[in-house]
Amino acid sequence: MRQVYLAATGMNRGKTTVCLGFLAGCLSRGLSTGFLKPVGQRTVIEDGVPADDDAVLMRTLFNLPDPIAVMSPVHIPRGFTKAYINGEVVEDLPGRIRAAHARLAMNREVVLIEGTGHAGVGAVIGLSNADVAALLGAPAIIVSEGGVGRPIDEIVLNASLFARRGVTVAGAIVNKVDLDAQPGIVPILERGLALHGIPLLGVLPYRPILSNPTLGMILGGLRGETICAGPDLDRVVEAVSIGAMEREHVLDRMGPGTLVIVPADRTDVIVGLAAAQAAGRGALGLVLTDGYRPETAAADAIRAANLFATVVPADTYVVASEIHDLLVKTHPSDAGKIALIKALVAEHLDIDRILDVAAPFTA
Questions:
Q1: Which positions ≥6 away from 210 have C-beta within 8 Å?
Q2: Are residues 344 and 221 in the same domain?
Q3: Distances (CA, A) of 116 to 5, 8, 12, 240
Q4: Cα-based distances in Å from 274 to 17, 248, 260, 296
Q5: pLDDT of residue 58
Q6: Within this chain, do residues 54 and 150 fall inside the same structural domain, yes or no?
Q7: Is 315 left (phi over 0), alpha (psi -120 to 50) or beta?
């Protein structure tokens, strides 16, 4: 059995994207493959037990046969860290991970282990990514994103902690790269990482649908009141604009993929945006801020134009920050996004090379 620990340099670097594509690649090669998320931070309830949402995603998408409690053995709910520090957690967490790993390894050709955040996440409970990779004897592949200096700096920094725990860093993947704007970036990244003894295993191009939220995610993330759901909550937000200027200037600055954040009492702007939508050149949707309900004329115009709109109590600055920080995750129902992920990984990552650097596991 071969195994690899897929780590990252931080949140939202594309680790789940790579995991999904790698699993698809292994299964398409006829390899019996298991998935393990040793420590999870985003917990949902599946089959009546708590589990990390990435484990649920992989199990659902690929019809994996393992119990979810095995795929996601340790999770960190709210308050867990304080309880651990205070000595109130007496469970053998490393033992639970080892047992799950051993069960997954039975009769499997490949096991993919997905980390959480950067290399040090989980250190507070003695289960950093570097600690867990060392515990399981798995080499690490580190995912970062964009640019040149930033990803190399981040990868080298994270690699140092893995090295301190005796974990081999088998390579790195750089995600969300604008290959059209930087046509020569791949060999530069390759040479830059080689200076630190880290092979570049692939570069994934930037695609907005993989990084930007849909209107449905905006609605769920902001927990606002829906004025109008619009024609399609699965449409992807391409840009965000603040509608705090004169109506004509707002209209000049928005495109068909723009989500406009505007105070709910700016009736002139709202009616203007709704009219533009009715004329076929409107924005993607509206987030109406400050807790006011739009005037009747504005609400009627929104509904008549079938323009997505939600009312939230926070002010414009807070809402803009929340949208910026919105964690965009892949869900089993995201058929178009999942198909794109599989195609991107198949085209831009050498799955066979990654399998070559995966280390054998002996129980």
A1: 14, 17, 176, 337, 340, 341, 344
A2: no
A3: 11, 8, 10, 28
A4: 36, 13, 11, 13
A5: 93
A6: yes
A7: beta
Reading the block at residue 208, the tokens are: 């907005």
- Domain CATH number, residue 226: 3.40.1390.20
Comparing CA positions, the residue from 357, 359, 358, 355 lying closest to residue 30 is 355
35-67 per-position pLDDT tens digit? 999 998 887 777 778 888 899 999 999 999 999
Could you tell me if 230 and 188 lie in one domain? no
pLDDT bracket for residue 128 (50, 70, 90): very high
Q: In whole angstroms, what is the distance from residue 138 CA to residue 319 CA?
A: 41
Taking only the tens place, the pLDDT of each residue in 147-197 is 888 899 999 999 999 999 999 999 999 999 888 888 889 999 999 999 999
Task: Characterize 123-146 residue by residue with b for buried, 16 or more Cβ atoms within 10 angstroms of its Cβ, and e for exposed.
Answer: eebebbbbbbbbbbbbbbbbbbbb
User: Could you tell me if 36 and 101 are in contact, meaning their C-beta atoms sit under 8 angstroms apart?
Assistant: yes
Is a pLDDT exceeding 90 seen at residue 5?
yes
Number of domains in the chain: 2
Secondary structure class of 312 (helix, strand, coil): coil
Q: What is the pLDDT of residues 271-319, one digit of tens each?
A: 888 888 877 777 888 999 988 888 888 899 899 989 999 999 988 888 8
Residues 187 and 249 in one domain: no
Which CATH number belongs to the domain containing residue 151 in this structure? 3.40.50.300
Name the residue among 104, 75, 114 with its Cα closest to residue 91: 75
Distance between CA atoms of 81 and 86, rounded to whole angstroms?
Answer: 9
State whether 199 and 73 are in the same domain: yes
Containing domain of residue 250, as a range? 213-325
Residues 220 and 130 placed together within one structural domain of the fold: no
Q: Both 265 and 192 in a single domain?
A: no
Token code pair at residue 251:
């209209």
Instruction: Indicate if 11 and 99 belong to the same structural domain.
Output: yes
Residue 327 has a pLDDT of 60
